[in-house]
Structures are given as C-alpha cells and as structure tokens.
Amino acid sequence: MGRSTASRLEPLSEAAIVLLTEVSDARSELRIGVRAILSRESDPDNVLSAIYAVYDRLVLLSTATAESLAAVYGDQPLEVEDEMSEEITSRETDVLRMLAEGLVNKEIAARLGISEHTVKFHISSILDKLGASTRAEAVTLGIRRGLIPI
Which residues constitute the domain of residue 7? Predict the structure, then answer.
C-alpha cells in the first residue's frame, strides 16, 4: 500500500490490518484501519505478535514509526475516535471489574458498602457509556479498552 493509495482509501472499521513497509505516513494509515505498522525486515515472530495484537484490538507500531510520530507531533494527541461519549468513573470501573469477577448486584453492593439500587444505577451508566446491551458485553468491552486487567 503506497502513500497515495492510503490517502484515498475509506476507513475499514472492522479490519485488523498489519502493514509491513519501509516508509510510512502512520497518521493516515491509522485513520484507514491499519493497526500495526512494522518494518519489512521484521522477524516472523514479531509479525505473528502483531497479528495477535491487532486481533485483540491493540495498535502496534515499530520503534521507528513511533519515534517519527513523536518527533512530528510532539505533545499533540492523535485524533483517535472516542468510542465512549463520557468517561467511566473510578466507581464505575470498580463495579465493572466486579462484574468481570461474576459478582451479582447484592455482592457488589456489600463489597462497596452501597445499596443495590446504586449498583443498578452504576451498571446502567456503564452500559450506556460503553454502548453495551448486556453485562457480559460491558465486561468484554471493558477488557478491550483496558478498563479490566486480564
């Protein structure tokens, strides 16, 4: 994929693309769905690791690509699509992690010293913020977004 080709492509939302290249315009390639950018000379084990990383919805850049981005953009944040309309609060993160442990509302309430009604409120807020429809989906999204350590 050449530089001019990458700028003309539409984003591929569900694609997990690993790019092996010499020179890269990482910002435009990240915008179209590339999730790993490695040197063409990368070790096969590194390429396999990149494939697993993108499958797990992570972004992987070679050191040279990361340093290039840092040099050009410094402290400017990359324009990454914000998947959450609002940030998950620390209390909601606690509740989400307890959901991942398989605790029911009553157990979560006892651990946190709050009412079951408040737990239900937190779970409703978590589902809304993550765009999830079930507790299991919320846990899955929480893991993918790094809210729940595995």
Answer: 3-73
